[in-house]
Write a structure and sequence with these properties.
This protein has about 325 residues and is α/β, with parallel strands linked by helices. Helix content is about 40%, strand content about 15%. It has eleven helices and 13 strands. β1, α1 and β2 (about 30-35) form a beta-alpha-beta unit. It binds uridine-diphosphate-N-acetylglucosamine.
Length: about 325
């Protein structure tokens, strides 16, 4: 019998791509989403890609009784927990909403796992836990630094909650520390749907190329990097989605070495903002209107992953290039018009 996997936030950007990969790998998927940052159309799009409609429950995970009722209804073999607020700037203005949604819901899910003796939990974490790491590339041994944002703090505390829970209770978990997820599914049926003015680089680039924004602001060219612009590790969302299947399989097979593990999920290659702009222009044969402005508050100079441990332990590696990701991001943007 196929294993039944709960994906919370399964209609979001990374969640939807992960649902597709889970279904492709033969898992039965149940999606929970509260539709606060996505629409039901994504469910139809997933169904078009895979030929199978995942079970769907519209649930707000902050409502404990609804979480309980869900687990009364379904037999779950593993949970991939994406559902969370993710806007760094907004998190500074709404700290309590972020803590309630990102940590309250997490605790409720883990309590159900404890009470029902469920196992196998995968958590969406972030490279933001490292802050500006002292050494690059960043290995899992790099210390977790005090979070600069409330959002980042929810990821750090989330990891701590999970680790403490795995010590006390009989389940195991993996946190995946994502670097910068970008791109869209090759079918262009699912992708990133930023609401309002995008804060992240790639959606801002594609919306500028599409004429929705006048020009892209490059935040700072006086960083201590080869061309002065900040460096990040941009990973194709399909590669990132596949890392979740690898992590889940590790837990299902009992191949984990600790009850709580964490892995860096990136490509291992850093790209500067100007390199991304150039790659975008080349991949899509167009010119982008941009100007250099001041640094953005809170931005770090450089972050890219050492993926040695993830590659080995998860038996996973990225397969898709920056160019492929930027092409898919643009194709997705064009389709939104
Ligand atoms: C941010 C969050 C991170 C989150 C990630 C994905 C911070 C400190 N970190 O990462 O926690 O997981 O988003 O949602 O906010 N840039 C421009 N012009 C733009 C937009 C961005 O030059 O209009 C630059 C930024 O300065 C940065 C790079 O592009 O150097 C990437 O920015 P962004 O896509 O926002 O991701 P991060 O800031 O790395």
């Amino acid at each position: 019998m196929a294993k039944q996997i709960l994906v919370t936030g399964g209609l979001g950007f990374i969640g939807s791509h992960t649902v597709v990969e889970l279904q492709n790998a033969g898992f039965d998927v149940v999606v929970i989403d509260d539709l606060s940052n996505t629409t039901l159309k994504v469910l139809d799009q997933i169904t078009e890609i895979t030929g199978t409609k995942p079970a769907f429950e519209q649930i707000d995970l902050r409502i404990k009784e609804d979480v309980k009722a869900f687990f009364d209804k379904y037999q779950i073999d593993g949970i991939i927990h994406f559902a969370a607020f993710k806007a760094v700037g907004e998190s500074m203005h709404k700290p309590l909403d972020y803590y309630e949604n990102n940590l309250g819901a997490l605790v409720y899910l883990l309590q159900e796992m404890r009470d029902r003796k469920l196992d196998n939990f995968i958590f969406s974490s972030s490279c933001t836990v490292y802050g500006q790491a002292d050494e690059l590339p960043i290995t899992e041994k790099a210390p977790v630094k005090k979070a600069e944002s409330v959002y980042g703090n929810t990821k750090q505390i989330g990891e701590e909650i999970i680790e403490d829970a795995t010590k006390a209770h009989d389940f195991k978990a993996i946190a995946l520390r994502y670097f910068n997820p970008i791109g869209a599914h090759p079918t262009t049926k699912i992708g990133e749907l930023p609401i309002g003015v995008p804060q992240n680089l790639i959606p801002f680039i594609t919306q500028t190329a599409a004429g929705m924004r006048d020009e892209l602001s490059v935040f700072g060219d006086d960083y201590n990097t080869p061309d002065g612009t900040a460096v990040r590790d941009y990973i194709h969302v399909v590669d990132l989605a596949k890392a979740h299947i690898a992590a889940l399989q590790r837990l299902l097979d009992g191949n984990n070495k600790e009850k709580f593990e964490y892995f860096n999920v990136g490509t291992g290659t850093g790209s500067s903002v100007l390199e991304v702009i150039n790659a975008f222009e080349t991949a899509n044969s167009l010119k982008l209107n941009y100007k250099i402005v001041d640094r953005r508050a809170g931005d770090i100079t450089a972050a890219y992953a050492d993926t040695t441990i993830a590659n080995k332990e998860l038996n996973w590696k990225t397969e898709l290039s920056l160019e492929t990701a930027l092409k898919s991001a643009w194709e997705w943007q064009v389709k939104q018009k």
